[in-house]
Amino acid sequence: MPDDRIPPWMSYVPSQGDEDSAPPAAPGSGPIADGRPNESSVIADPVGPAISFAQTGRASRAIIGEVPEERPNTRPRRARGGSHRGLKITLIIVLAVILVIGGALAWLWISLGSKLNQRHIDEFLGSSRPPTVSSAATATKYPGDPFAGQALNILVLGTDSRDGANAGISADHPGGARSDTQFIAHVSADRTRVDAVSIPRDTWITMPDCVGSDGEEIPQAGWGHQKFNSAFFYGAGGDTDTPDIGLGAACAIRAVEAMSNVRINAYMVVDFMGFVNVVNAVDGVDVNLRCPIYSPNAGLDLPAGINHLDGVQAVAMARARTGDGLGGGSDLERINRQHVLFDSILAKVYALNYVTNFPQLYNLVSSVVSAVTTDLGDLTKIAGFAYSLRNLSMADVAFTTVPIADVGDGSNVYVLESEAEPIWDALNTDRPVGSADPSASDSASPSETESTPTDPTQPTDTTPTDTTTEPPLIQSEYDC
Question: Fewest CB atoms within 10 A around its CB: which of 222, 240, 417, 463?
Answer without folding.
Answer: 463
